Here is the input.
Amino acid sequence: MSYVRVCSLNELGEDSPKRVELGGGLAISIVRTAGEVFAINDICSHANVSLSEGEVEDCRIECWLHGSAFDLRTGKPSGLPATRPVPVYPVKIEGDDVLVSVTQES
Ligand code: FES
Here is the structure.
């Protein structure tokens, strides 16, 4: 699994998602909450809305447009209108660097 550096740890505020563009049209939201860092695809599975503009609570990120909240560990929505999960990605912390793997192979 190959990891890419997406930001430094001290750029991440608690419960304050950071949108990172990785090229190829892929944008992810990096979320620091409850002592952990998560990476989730930044686009809501219901419509083309940036999840990083939503609020974080109870290890979920809420879509600001219609209110579906996505589990930061699994990507699954907690309720309608979204029905499909959003991809989540493994995160590694090395020193002050936040690394994310967006490749599928293990
Ligand atoms: S656009 Fe996200 S729940 Fe509708």
About this structure: The CA atoms of residues 55 and 62 lie 5 Å apart. The chain has a mean pLDDT of 95. The two ends are 5 Å apart (CA to CA). The pocket of FE2/S2 (inorganic) cluster is lined by residues 44, 46-47, 49, 63, 65-66, 68, 81-82 (CB under 6 Å).
